[in-house]
């Protein structure tokens, strides 16, 4: 028999009754039932109930065993007594009577128990991550992550892609986030950078003629943590293709993601097709460039309506005169909500830094009246509205600001927002970016409060036509708004002739850039690349990068483009976020094997850590630490 096991702890079945077996694992739980000990023995594969009584020669050793001790047991498989079977365990019809027991690894008192689903502080969970990973849910998440990555790899290979590995030590480049720098011992004063993404290398792979590349790529960015983003490092499904248009990329990527989500959706529906939404439309209708399409609400712009002379609501008029906008967030069926519903949303808006959310409730005057004989019983508000609609009864607006808005304009607002009697509408007003942002958040909140969002699905969309440039208010100049390596969606000759001071035209340029969004989470950014060196020089020049800076930062890429580059494009869906969605976890740390905390610290390994003076001397580095306060 094998030194440690003849079977795993998830393998035994009724067909094994009578067999002598050997199991090894962790003591998941130890129970004393009147002198008879029950040990639930756990390994990676499952749990087996083991039993021992004073008649066994191993009983004394078993009495010393505690939770999470690692033991080996020998014993006979027997049927569980009738009525004691555990249908929730694959091994639940049998148990093992222990004849011999060996302690392989005793455990000290645990800082957190493994058995059960109790919540523990995240700092404790991260410091003792190896214990946390023994817990069933987290263990299952990590195994699911591996299965999802296997599925992604298989589907990419089936699509004609080949997996490559790109360098980890590379040169620093301005790609939008801070680099992690690695000092060079052999080249004093110089630094490598860990790649924010394999962007340049995957493009160079296309220029080298390999046509279809993919990689489960580690990426490193020195940025703050969020619930859906790990600090420091993350993984993405990095993809690049040659001789393709934007549509070709969509057609290659959609089937991969759709089929992976269908494989692991566990009954949730998956979008049969990915909706295409231009960036400007997304910002108007959803207030954000990563819309959650499970929520059916669509924001409307009602700036023109509130700007009309007949409207007397001065708060919005002053916003519009200052160049701001007014956005309407529909609330279907909200007329039946209590006043506290509207007050609560106003309080929430104030907590977001806004003055509040103005609102109008659209309804019939008699919507809640009883109009039938008492013998027929009271009529519901819904039936009452249907009856009033048949009569052609007028709809009126109610609420704090309704009296300042003439009925005809109220009707126009209702039509734009798709509202009818029994519905309400909230308003967000201010500078366009702030009004859109608040409206987007209010859309989600209203949808959740009214239970309008269909959570039982994965709703995908493509966001397209991103602006190539944006205005950097701090530095008063044009800057890249997305990926600087993207091809502008602009006539070539007109682009090359652009005056760098023509900010209005430059800021209106769109790029062949696109994002994949699922359930309000951005999974990926991608683009058709700028493969023409003269266009790249011009694009960077318009963003304030002189040719010498471009050559210094991206000389390798620029030289490669001058030596025969094919049209190419790609995308890079985030693996961690895909797994987070498919595991139904709100926090990305629940699907990462050994994550850092929000301050980018590895509490288990003690990173980042101080290094010795000798190490610093070898790297020709002297520390200049900030002064401690107080």
TrEMBL record:
Membrane-spanning ranges: none
Residue span, Aminoacyl-transfer RNA synthetases class-II family profile domain: 148-595
Binding-site residues for ATP, renumbered to this chain: 221-223, 522, 574-577
GO molecular-function terms, A-Z: aspartate-tRNA ligase activity; aspartate-tRNA(Asn) ligase activity; ATP binding; nucleic acid binding
EC code(s) of this entry: 6.1.1.23
UniProt keywords, alphabetically: Aminoacyl-tRNA synthetase, ATP-binding, Cytoplasm, Ligase, Nucleotide-binding, Protein biosynthesis
Catalytically driven reaction(s): tRNA(Asx) + L-aspartate + ATP = L-aspartyl-tRNA(Asx) + AMP + diphosphate
GO biological process, one term: aspartyl-tRNA aminoacylation
Site keyed Important for tRNA non-discrimination: positions: 33, 83
Enzyme category, top tier: ligase
InterPro entries named in the record: Aa-tRNA-synt_II, aa-tRNA-synth_II, aa-tRNA-synth_II/BPL/LPL, Asp-tRNA-ligase_1, Asp-tRNA-ligase_1_N, Asp/Asn-tRNA-synth_IIb, GAD-like_sf, GAD_dom
Intracellular or extracellular location(s): Cytoplasm
GO CC entries: cytoplasm
Region named Aspartate: 199-202
Binding, L-aspartate: 175, 221, 482, 529
NCBIfam families linked to this entry: aspS_bact, PRK00476.1
Described purpose of this protein according to its UniProt entry: Aspartyl-tRNA synthetase with relaxed tRNA specificity since it is able to aspartylate not only its cognate tRNA(Asp) but also tRNA(Asn). Reaction proceeds in two steps: L-aspartate is first activated by ATP to form Asp-AMP and then transferred to the acceptor end of tRNA(Asp/Asn).
Family (UniProt): Belongs to the class-II aminoacyl-tRNA synthetase family. Type 1 subfamily.
Subunit structure: Homodimer.
Xref: PANTHER family: ASPARTATE--TRNA LIGASE, MITOCHONDRIAL (PTHR22594:SF5), ASPARTYL/LYSYL-TRNA SYNTHETASE (PTHR22594)
The name this protein goes by in its record: Aspartate--tRNA(Asp/Asn) ligase
Annotated source species: Methylobacterium tarhaniae
């Amino acid at each position: 028999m094998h030194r440690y096991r003849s079977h795993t702890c998830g393998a035994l079945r009724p067909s094994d009754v009578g067999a002598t077996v050997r199991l090894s694992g962790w003591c998941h739980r130890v129970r004393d039932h009147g002198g008879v000990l029950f040990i639930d023995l756990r390994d990676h594969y499952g749990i087996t109930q083991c039993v021992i009584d004073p008649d066994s020669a191993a009983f004394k050793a078993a009495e010393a065993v505690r939770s999470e001790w690692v033991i080996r047991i020998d014993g006979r498989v027997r049927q569980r007594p009738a009525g004691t079977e555990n249908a929730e365990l694959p091994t639940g019809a049998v148990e093992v009577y222990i004849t011999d027991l060996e302690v392989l690894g005793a455990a000290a008192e645990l800082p957190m128990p493994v058995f059960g689903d109790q919540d523990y502080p995240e700092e404790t969970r991260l410091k003792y991550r190896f214990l946390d990973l023994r817990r069933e849910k987290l263990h299952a998440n990590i195994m699911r992550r591996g299965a999802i990555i296997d599925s992604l790899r298989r589907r990419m290979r089936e699509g004609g892609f080949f997996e490559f590995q790109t360098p980890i030590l590379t040169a620093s480049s301005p790609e939008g986030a801070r680099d992690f720098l690695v000092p060079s011992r052999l080249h004093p004063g110089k630094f490598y950078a860990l790649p924010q993404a394999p962007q340049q290398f995957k493009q160079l792979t296309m220029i080298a003629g390999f046509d279809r590349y993919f990689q489960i790529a580690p990426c490193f960015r020195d940025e703050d943590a969020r619930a859906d983003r790990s600090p420091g490092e993350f993984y993405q499904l990095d993809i690049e293709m040659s001789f393709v248009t934007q549509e070709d990329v969509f057609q290659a990527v959609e089937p991969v993601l759709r089929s992976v989500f269908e494989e692991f959706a566990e009954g949730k529906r998956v979008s049969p097709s990915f909706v295409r939404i231009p960036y400007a439309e997304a910002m108007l209708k959803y207030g954000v460039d990563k819309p959650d399409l499970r929520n059916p609400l669509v924001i409307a712009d009602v700036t023109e309506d509130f700007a009309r002379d007949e409207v007397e609501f001065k708060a919005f008029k002053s916003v519009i005169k200052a160049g701001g906008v007014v956005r309407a967030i529909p609330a279907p069926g909200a007329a039946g909500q209590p006043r506290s519903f509207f007050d609560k949303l106003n309080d929430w808006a104030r907590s977001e830094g806004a003055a509040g959310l103005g609102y109008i409730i659209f309804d019939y005057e008699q919507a809640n009246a009883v109009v039938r004989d008492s013998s027929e019983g009271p009529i519901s508000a819904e039936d009452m509205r249907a009856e009033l609609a048949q009569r052609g009864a007028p709809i009126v607006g109610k609420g704090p600001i309704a009296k300042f808005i003439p009925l005809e304009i109220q009707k126009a607002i209702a039509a734009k927002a798709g509202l009818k009697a029994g519905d309400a509408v909230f308003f967000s007003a201010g500078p366009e970016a702030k009004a859109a942002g608040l409206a987007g958040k209010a859309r989600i909140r209203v949808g959740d409060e009214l239970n309008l969002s269909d959570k039982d699905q994965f709703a995908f969309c493509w966001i397209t036509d991103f602006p190539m440039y944006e205005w950097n208010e701090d530095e008063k100049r044009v800057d890249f708004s997305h990926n600087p390596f993207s091809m502008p969606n602009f006539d070539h000759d007109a682009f090359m002739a652009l005056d760098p001071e023509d900010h209005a035209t430059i800021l209106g340029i769109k790029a062949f850039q696109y994002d994949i969004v699922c359930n309000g989470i951005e999974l990926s950014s991608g683009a058709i690349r700028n493969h023409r060196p003269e266009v790249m020089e011009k694009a960077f020049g318009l963003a304030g990068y002189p040719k010498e800076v471009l050559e210094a930062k991206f000389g390798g890429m620029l030289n490669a483009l001058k030596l025969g580059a094919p049209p190419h494009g790609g995308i890079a869906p985030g693996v961690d976020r895909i797994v987070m969605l498919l595991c139904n976890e709100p926090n990305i740390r629940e699907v990462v094997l050994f994550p850092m905390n929000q301050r980018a610290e590895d509490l288990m390994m003690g990173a980042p850590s101080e290094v010795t003076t000798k190490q610093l001397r070898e790297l020709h580095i002297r520390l200049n630490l900030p002064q401690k306060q107080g």
